[in-house]
Amino acid sequence: MTDPDPDRPLSEPPLLDFGTDALFLDFDGTLVELCDRPDAVDVPDQLLRTLHELNDRLQGRLALVSGRAIEVLDGFGMIGLAAAGSHGSEWRLAGGEREYLPRPDGLDIAQQQFAVFAETADGLLFEDKPLGAALHYRRAPNMREAAQELAKQLADKHALHVQHGHDMVEVRVAGVDKGTAIAELLSLSPFAGHRPVFLGDDVTDEDGFRTVEDAGGMGILVGAPRRTVASHRLPGVRDVNDWLKRSLHKDKSQHAGTGTSEDMP
Ligand SMILES: [Mg+2]
């Protein structure tokens, strides 16, 4: 696909079609607000209810697609939902079937060096991941360049991939991204044969946007306008939550009298 004009205006997305769509959702900055500490994000009960209700309405065609490890997502209440974690290095279907790539050589060394580096400045935060290691410099912005340089050196030396994100840099297993993660899930039941819709906020989500747009689906950028291959945009986390709820409400109206899941816990 030829990249579209980056300056074109992006319209608000139409509401979900529960008969045809498969829904892929980034987590941080899309469903929940970004936070100084990645372990401190607030996941409201209402959001969890909305996600599970969407999953029911989509007959299981909802998956989280995150840079976080699946076990971390589960700790936020995502058990029972399909997920691709660690930037596509691992995935899990709603029924619990799991698969993950082998842990690359050199990751242990990278993790050790990141941990040591994180001790050198206040506000630097090291995050250990099953298939990666991250440095967060949101509270130490003057360390950004040094963190990125260290990540590049380690990646070059150990054949790892450097992943840049919001105020963070990560080294991880190479050869996968959110685009391959969505493509993998789209090859599997119950996602196969449905129109993919993906919402994400970060530069790492562009691979996912490309996959869904190429497949005739809809990429939805969350946040301020920027260069993107997504075809639609929502301004922020609150708008995403509102859009998801409005989609559910529309679907309920259409199914009025046929029994809804409004009584879900
Ligand atoms: Mg994000």
Considering the chains and any ligands shown, give keywords for the structure.
alpha/beta, four-stranded antiparallel sheet, Rossmann fold, eight-stranded mixed sheet, Alpha-Beta Plaits, globular, 2 domains, single chain, binds magnesium ion, 7 helices
List the helices and strands and how they pair.
Elements: E1 21-25, H1 45-57, E2 62-65, H2 70-78, E3 82-85, E4 90-92, E5 98-100, H3 107-118, E6 125-129, E7 132-136, H4 144-158, E8 161-165, E9 168-172, H5 178-186, E10 195-200, H6 206-214, E11 218-222, E12 232-234, H7 237-254
Parallel strand pairs: 1-2, 1-10, 2-3, 10-11, 11-12
Antiparallel strand pairs: 3-4, 4-5, 6-7, 7-9, 8-9
Helix pairs in contact: 1-7, 3-4, 5-6
The structure holds magnesium ion.
Strand-and-helix sequence, N→C?
Answer: EHEHEEEHEEHEEHEHEEH
Number of helices: 7
CATH architecture of the largest domain: 3-Layer(aba) Sandwich
**Fraction of residues in β-strands:** 15-25%
Mean of residue pLDDT values: 91
Q: Which ligands are bound?
A: magnesium ion
Uncertain regions: pLDDT < 50 for 5+ in a row? 259-265
What is the rounded Rg?
Answer: 19 Å
Helix content: 25-40%
